[in-house]
Amino acid sequence: MATLTVPEAPTRSTPAQAPVDPRHRAFTVLCVVVLVVLAALWLVPMLWAVDTSIRPESEITASPATWWTSHPSLDTYRQVLSAGRMPVWYLNSFLVALLTAVFAVVVCSMAGFAVARVRFRGRRIVTGLVLAGLLIPPQTLIMPQFQEFAGLHLLNTYWALILPSVPTSVAVFVFASFFSGLPGELAESARIDGAGWFRVYSRIFLPLCKPAASAVFIFTFVWSWNNFLWPLLTMTSADVMTIPVGLNVVQDSYGIRYAQVMASAVLGALPLFAVFLVFQRRIVEGVANTGIK
Hints:
The chain is an all-alpha fold. The chain contains 14 helices and no strands.
């Protein structure tokens, strides 16, 4: 009687792991060391500011200085919060930064779409002027802008803080770079179907530029929140001051009392920490998808 023999299945040999390149490992270690050093350079001053803000004044001026205090106290924060109109300044800063960021996204995305997709006479000149705006320091425009807003009777108003910060060459360049990377067939097919340029922008391209819009919105919000020189020149009423200007007024009243000065700085930076912690993923995606390396 014949017996059937089933052939054994061939055993798969496990592929040998490729040896790790020593140069790749050295580069990884170098990157980690650089990141740790940069993180320390950024964190140490911030930790020192927080530590100074909760110290008694006698310990701050003592020599030699120590890293930690045995008598931490939040009295300096209570003094700073009670010395000025902190809730009003926080609200003003939030409204100004929010409206500036929203208007910047709308205006700069339209300009970036026109530069990237619309073919019109003088397009090269307009693009060159937008890029030339990157070379002009904003401080050189303070005097003409001040005279302009004074003539329009807009000083001590929110519009004096919002309007100058809306058109930025960097934001236009970010949107133009993003729109240039999208397939041109999207606009061509919509134009063939009879859609106007504004409809192509609002219905097709704008919904696709969420990464770029998020990056521009966050960076504009942070820049507007930290803006100090222009609000200092245009805001003289405490009712419309923003956080940087209001804290400067409070700090001037303290003189060289370091605990109050550091407490004011920490209070002014707290909302920005919250923004970066909540939207850090959006920031990375926006920078990675807009051609900025």
